[in-house]
């Protein structure tokens, strides 16, 4: 082993190594009893079996090696693990398995606190994605970076202010291993940078049946500055970010090739991975002997881009000089002018000052793009409209796949038990159709007992965690002891945890502190609140919001009813979503692209009270939870006050009364009815199982098939497509539409329009009669048939269509667009001409 040598284990315990080095334990929990038996304290503190094995005293291991009961437990756990790895899986049972391999590129992966390579929701999604691919047996590999430091850890000082710590990700303690090359040696890949070669070490994390490969630049051959490229997630300035993105995209593909993995689909999780598109084309042109643009057409079909950011300011954009510097060694291979390369990242290709935007590159380099919720789809089509000039916003080529969560990573032991009874052990590994009905059959008493038990666990955990943190900062024994008294397992419990970023409005609930205090301290129907979240180290405003919460929680009446738990991370998130009665989320629409934290409470019977933004805008149903129709957009100045008022009103008039309205048997029937509706209708729908199958069916299969057609036979189709594009672009200015004529004919309009194609032929274009949607009328887009040639013209034809006369003929505008049955349009060629 090339890294710090792991300690040898007694022979009868070697299977522990196999268990510890597969992150399957983050969701299967079959081996938890073992880790607890080995060293309960280390397990509680680290939740990292690999680190535990490196740190437990040797005498302890030797003792366990003699322990027959332990040997039995180990055998049971390893059998279960191996049978999971060997089972065929849902994908293998599908009629078609011709997908090839999907490579999933992401700057962040949130798999567990034991491998902390994430900052927030984007990374947690990527982690959930890989776990689900493993459960379904989908052929996926993950590609990411191994940071020497994960994202910062939050410490709250005695004054209630956030400070930061950056502990090291010590590779020897991480449940990962060096990836080996074909020669059996630790795999390292070289990457060309200006004036030097950067050596990247390759690590492998096992995520059930899926492999995640991680690159890091901390190789001894690199210069000191280069060794720090993968030092910190989102650390450093623009140049550092660009370098990290080069490592991810360019280094990532080089690594896959060295591993012998040839992806059919490259899935870019956010624009950070956009350089994959250029590098994939560069590798293809060398292999197939095509031009750069032919290779671009060939490989683009296999690229899928998921955008996560609803604001343009959130996109990575680099100064042209920086991009010139780092592309210098590559443009020679591309054999295109550098300016053409830079144009791929610009909205306006002629503007030499425009920065190079990674999201623009991703949109141009991927045949298919999606947003992460229905609402985010709409927002993104507006945002990216300028890249498709003169196209109606609703036709901007961007669909959506609403995010989902990997349910087995977020359910509690109690809810796991209940769901297993109702729906079986395999419930999240295949079809979901039968789940709603099966879980809905659970009776009221059982559901209420679930909520009660989970709430008790959360209160215990919150007390312990609070006491531990107070101890860490050296508070007095009296204060530490008081932590054991906070909260109450019988009180309605609200949870609120998120990044303290402005648009998330983490302090909306604190808008009227007195009103909130009255709610919490009501003598008959009290409420308690758990808050958590980090502010970005440079975000002073966010830090002030945290401080405001902590100040509020120091009020005498409130201190027993409300706690701030520091250092929000996945481990804390799990506990919170397992124990709260209500999860509160109050972003300012439309800036929550999707949001996933609220989805994590569904399986556990927690209810959502949220602003109708992101996923909740499509999930909300009064039977399942509560929604706040935000005033943002209507009345921006007063929006916070209006939204806060709405939030308080729902709590005071609906949430609290429903929770405390008990029948003779002590069960709040209306509350439980909501739990049942939310669990059965929403948990399956917002699972990552549904999400991955959507990607497979709507994106990956299409991508893999198109890639194959384009690359077969010496990339003949890709060359044809490039030739078609060139011809269309050269002659597009010659295309013209004459005046439209409308005649009424038995319930229809007959539209006809003369079309002059100049140097193009009818098979290269499509003419359509387009009508915008109007109140109570859907939009329409009717193809027009090419009819008679217009005498005396060159490529002039009369185009015709019959359209319903339910709307005026004047609603229809003829338009002409390039057409090729094999192209993704308008994603791959966005020309369009309208009749004026
Ligand atoms: C799920 C999760 C997120 C994402 O939460 P949203 O607020 O919904 O974006 C962020 N951080 C952690 C630790 C999580 O577990």
TrEMBL record:
Organism expressing this protein natively: Mizugakiibacter sediminis
Residue ranges constituting the DUF3417 domain according to the UniProt record: 9-114
Pfam annotation, one family: DUF3417
Alphabetical keyword list: Allosteric enzyme, Pyridoxal phosphate
The organism's place on the tree of life at top rank: Bacteria
PTM sites of type N6-(pyridoxal phosphate)lysine: 600
Keyword Cytoplasm in annotation: no
Catalytic activity: [(1->4)-alpha-D-glucosyl](n) + phosphate = [(1->4)-alpha-D-glucosyl](n-1) + alpha-D-glucose 1-phosphate
InterPro entries in alphabetical order: Agluc_phsphrylas (IPR011834), Glyco_trans_35 (IPR000811), Glycogen/Maltodextrin_Phosph (IPR052182), Glycogen_phosphorylase_DUF3417 (IPR024517)
Molecular function as annotated in GO: glycogen phosphorylase activity; pyridoxal phosphate binding
Example of a GO biological process term: carbohydrate metabolic process
Coiled coil: none
Name of the protein in question: Glycogen phosphorylase
Family the UniProt entry places it in: Belongs to the glycogen phosphorylase family.
